[in-house]
Amino acid sequence: MISGLLQYEFLQNAFLTGIIIGIIAPLLGVFVVVRRQSLIADALSHVTLGGIAFSLYMDKKILANPVGLNPLYMGMAFSIIGSLLIEKLRTVYKHYQELAIPIIMSGGLGLSVIFISLADGFNTDLFSYLFGSVSAVSRADLWTIIAVAVVVITIVIFLYKELFLISFDEDHAKASGIPTKWIHFVFIILVAMVIAASMRIVGVLLVSSLMTLPVAASMRLANGFKQMIVYSVLFGEIAVFGGLISAYYLDLAPGGTIVMISISILLMAIGYKKVKVRKA
Fold it and tell me: Residue 236 falls within a domain, yes or no?
């Protein structure tokens, strides 16, 4: 494994990307879960799939470019547009804001099916985006993900207090003069970017699990919000490393192995909490 990492660029790309995704996905996932918007990740992943399918369709049927477009960028563009539409619909349905998520999810899934059918169905490239692939991560993808990570971590550091307050008490945040509307927009765009960036490793259909499962496990163990962030990132990294190593040796899609390790961590956290409560 170590010799492979030193020798093959695609393994280096995959593991470096995994390290980054293991940090930024749970980091944003903590705020997403606390805001009770866990399904946003699912909705935007379906929209991202629509962007990927559209990119593959354009490359295959219209542009006929042998080099090809990078579907990562088109998926990210679709995801950002979807995130903005969710925020817009939340203002339209003020008393039923959760309705915005299934609307966008349905639209994203519908677009995906249309573009997949126009591109003559599934192919190897699309499967790698759906379920993740170690060999699919290019150096260009790695640099894009590094740029996304820098933006995400910088904004979270500078807006930490505002994001914290909005997540727990939005009415108080508004009364305090915090521009909640714009922070909502910035935050959901960050979520969209992370989902699109994570699809190479985890896969579009499984990326939401990396934003929620480590957080769910950390909620059973953490004694405070900052500790929950630390535990979430730690569990995310364990899941990513374990998933990538398992995928390498067992020749499996990394997305599935990462998710199953995340579920195992969650079950152990739940079990540990129950044992601790009984002893107390």
Answer: yes
Percent with pLDDT over 90 in the chain: 18
pLDDT of residue 9 exceeding 80? no
CATH number at residue 237: 1.10.3470.10
Question: Residue 261: CA atoms inside 13 Å, Cβ hemisphere, count?
Answer: 22
**Per-residue pLDDT tens for 61-75?**
665 544 456 777 888
Flag whether 279 is in a domain.
no
Does residue 242 fall inside a structural domain?
yes
Q: Look at the chain and report how many structural domains it folds into.
A: 1
Residue from 194, 202, 196 nearest 243 by CA: 202
136 and 255 Cβ atoms separated by less than 8 Å: no
Q: What is the DSSP string of 113-175?
A: HHHHHHTTS--HHHHHHHH--STT--HHHHHHHHHHHHHHHHHHHHTHHHHHHHHH-HHHHHH
Over its C-alpha atoms, the chain yields an Rg (Å, rounded) of: 19
Q: Give the model confidence (pLDDT) of 194-219 as tens digits.
A: 888 887 777 776 788 888 999 999 99
Measured between alpha carbons, how far is 249 from 244 in angstroms, rounded to an integer? 9
Within-domain flag for 278 = no
Residue-wise DSSP of 59-72: IIIII--SS---HH
Tokens of 36: 């009770």
pTM for the structure as a whole: 0.84
Residue 103: domain span? 2-273
Residues 6+ apart with CB under 8 A from 228: 30, 215, 218, 219, 222
